[in-house]
Amino acid sequence: MDNRKVQLKSFFKQYSERFNQALKGEITDSEKTAVCFSDCFIEASPAGVSCGKNDESFRAAIPQGYSFYKSIGITSMEILAISTSILDQFHAMVNVHWKSYFIKKDLTGGSIEFDVIYFIQTKDDKHKIFAYITGDEQAALQKNGLI
Q1: % of the chain beyond a pLDDT of 70
Q2: Which CATH code is given to the segment(s) 3-143?
Q3: CA-angle at 83, arms to 78 and 86, nearest 5°
Q4: What pTM did the predictor assign?
Q5: 1: CB partners within 8 A, 6+ apart
Q6: 49-79 pLDDT, tens per residue?
Q7: Which entry of 2, 40, 42, 75 is 20 to 30 Å from 48 by CA?
Q8: Exposed/middle/buried for residue 8 (C-beta within 10 Å: 0-12, 13-18, 19+)
Q9: How far apart are the C-alpha atoms of 111 and 98, rounded to whole Å?
Q10: What's the rounded Cα separation, in Å, for the pair 9 and 48?
Q11: Could you state, in order of their start, the residue ranges of all structural domains in the chain?
């Protein structure tokens, strides 16, 4: 396997481990998540396209996001598959197939599988997410009775 593909697999493994630590209530360093993103980045979903800035407000939003997922019953996130396409010397497209486990307030559990496509820039062996594409997260959460 290409060395960069191995590095990117490790990058996302660490990313998911931080997410799972936060869901367990373990203190996580927002900086370790923020450093995964470029100075500015783009999110695309059925709701539209938005631009984010990797600044103090983004760092403040990271633990709030973890708290939201925990509050609706998400208990863990698992990477089921990673498919990486090396685009050029500096860029890659990584499709991560996630499985999110939950327990609802009525104590019934379940899971939701979904894909996120990430665009990564690699410079000096440092990987940064500069764009990502998600599905309709709100619809999936509603369908499963989480919101």
Answers
A1: 98
A2: 3.10.450.50
A3: 135
A4: 0.93
A5: none
A6: 999 999 999 999 999 999 999 999 999 999 9
A7: 75
A8: buried
A9: 10
A10: 28
A11: 3-143
